[in-house]
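Exercise 7. Given the encoded structure of a 161-residue chain, write a plausible sequence.
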């Protein structure tokens, strides 16, 4: 079923990139990962967004659990602009590396030309550093504030902002 969906995406969105990874477990082919990068998002990001990319992952809570990884830009109106997304089995260094390699190649990211903003997700910090060594990588202020709150330093940080 996912192969059909991937084929429809490719057919209806020329020059878009759709990658899927499956593995055989016995006689059953099991879904692992699905990456989508629409050509319209590629052109929109190149022509109208700042060289800042937000990276995030969230849990998919359904009959088919997993993680949704996303990359978004900031357009001229200061709105989020979707760049690429992936549905993956879990969130770790290997999977963030897989996602970042596609993103680097698809966006033609050069070392040091772009900035990434994220929280401290499992494996993401090392994946960005390994895949795009010269890139700037910063943390979202909201996540930093939440980490300070966990250590009972929230009021101190809030007063500094």
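Solution.
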């Amino acid at each position: 079923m996912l192969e059909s969906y991937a084929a429809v995406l490719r057919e209806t969105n020329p020059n878009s990139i759709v990658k899927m990874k499956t593995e055989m477990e016995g006689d059953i082919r099991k879904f692992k990962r699905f990456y989508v990068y629409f050509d319209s998002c590629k052109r929109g990001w190149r022509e109208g967004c700042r060289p800042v990319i937000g990276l995030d992952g969230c849990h998919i809570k359904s009959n088919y659990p997993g993680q949704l990884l996303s990359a978004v830009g900031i357009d001229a109106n200061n709105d989020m602009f979707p760049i690429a997304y992936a549905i993956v089995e879990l969130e770790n260094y290997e999977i963030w590396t897989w996602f970042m390699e596609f993103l680097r190649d698809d966006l033609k990211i050069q070392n040091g030309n772009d900035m990434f903003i994220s929280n401290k997700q499992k494996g993401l910090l090392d994946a960005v550093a390994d895949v795009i060594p010269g890139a700037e990588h910063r943390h979202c202020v909201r996540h930093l504030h939440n980490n300070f709150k966990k250590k009972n330093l929230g009021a101190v940080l809030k007063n500094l902002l």
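Remark. The beta strands are 17-25, 28-37, 52-60, 66-74, 80-88, 115-118, 136-139. Students should compare their own answers with the one above.
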